[in-house]
Amino acid sequence: MADEAPPLAAQRLVERVTEFTEEDLHSLCEATSAAIIDGGGFGWVNPPGIMALETYFRGVLLVPERELFIARLDGLVVGSAHLVRPPRNNEAQGHAAQLMHAYIAPYARGHGLARMLTIAVEDRARELGYHVLNLDVRETQEAAIRLYETLGFERWGVHPDYAFVRGQAVRGFFYSKRLRRPGTRRAQNGA
Ligand SMILES: CC(C)(COP(=O)(O)OP(=O)(O)OC[C@H]1O[C@@H](n2cnc3c(N)ncnc32)[C@H](O)[C@@H]1OP(=O)(O)O)[C@@H](O)C(=O)NCCC(=O)NCCS
Known about the structure:
The protein is α+β, with helices and mostly antiparallel strands. The protein has helices at 22-38, 50-60, 113-127, 142-150, and strands at residues 12-17, 66-73, 76-84, 96-104, 132-138, 154-165, 168-178. Strands 1-2-3-4-5-7-6 form a 7-stranded mixed β-sheet, sandwiched between helices.
């Protein structure tokens, strides 16, 4: 019998986006919908529909304090995450950025993309000069909790009524990671 060719490793890519092709926007919205249906974890409980998601993601690109990162598997957009910078009026917390709304569509999980996405956001926050990266998760997001803890995020708080999902209160865990020592160059809100 002829030797079978070994399966090709899926091609993985994480990048920051500042504009969308129609195709990418569509696959991003499909991925988001699939992740929401699977259990969400980034605000929506029910998928709002592809048109509403397209409007939402076009809006995200217009928000000055937000940067959008996408994950691709074999070229297809399968997940995303936001890096959120503090507003300019929040001088006291000008050292801390936030990682939000991170997910990978169920059909693309287990390829290491969430790890790549988190590291890309972290690297960008560090590059922008932030000292700290904050994030929060529902207690039910076990995979995310494991991911963030293995990447060195420290849990510093628990919110008992963090979210309400189908009438049930769900606790939330708050995490923080120090990106650079205090006293080193401070972020100038992305400048
Ligand atoms: C959490 C999530 C983003 C992980 O996506 P993923 O691309 O499958 O994750 P990766 O393949 O990069 O795995 C990275 C690490 O996550 C953890 N992890 C991933 N899937 C896991 C699972 N099913 N159970 C436990 N840990 C898991 C592991 O620590 C893993 O590292 P390892 O492979 O070295 O053990 C994905 O499950 C998801 O979108 N969940 C719903 C939304 C969510 O929780 N978002 C985060 C907070 S808003």
